[in-house]
Write a structure and sequence with these properties.
Length: about 70
C-alpha cells in the first residue's frame, strides 16, 4: 500500500464529502425554514454515517446544528 496515495485520496474524498454535505444541509434547512417545518427550533440533530463495506467500516457521527 502506498501511504502517500492513500492520504491524498482520503483528503480528496473528505473534501468532496464536506463540500457537498454542507450544500445539501444548507439547501434542506433553508427549504424547511421556508415552509415552516423548523419554526421555533433553535437547532436540529444530525447524523452522518460513513460505510466502507470492503473493510467492514461503519462509522457514525452525531451532532447538533445550531440555527440561531
Amino acid at each position: 500500500m502506498n501511504e502517500e496515495a492513500l492520504n491524498m485520496s482520503l483528503r480528496k474524498f473528505l473534501k468532496v464529502v464536506g463540500v457537498t454535505s454542507q450544500q445539501e444541509i444548507e439547501k434542506a434547512i433553508r427549504a424547511a425554514v421556508a415552509d415552516g417545518r423548523l419554526k421555533g427550533k433553535p437547532s436540529v440533530q444530525a447524523t452522518m454515517v460513513l460505510t466502507i463495506g470492503e473493510v467492514a467500516l461503519n462509522h457514525k457521527v452525531e451532532s447538533t446544528i445550531e440555527l440561531e
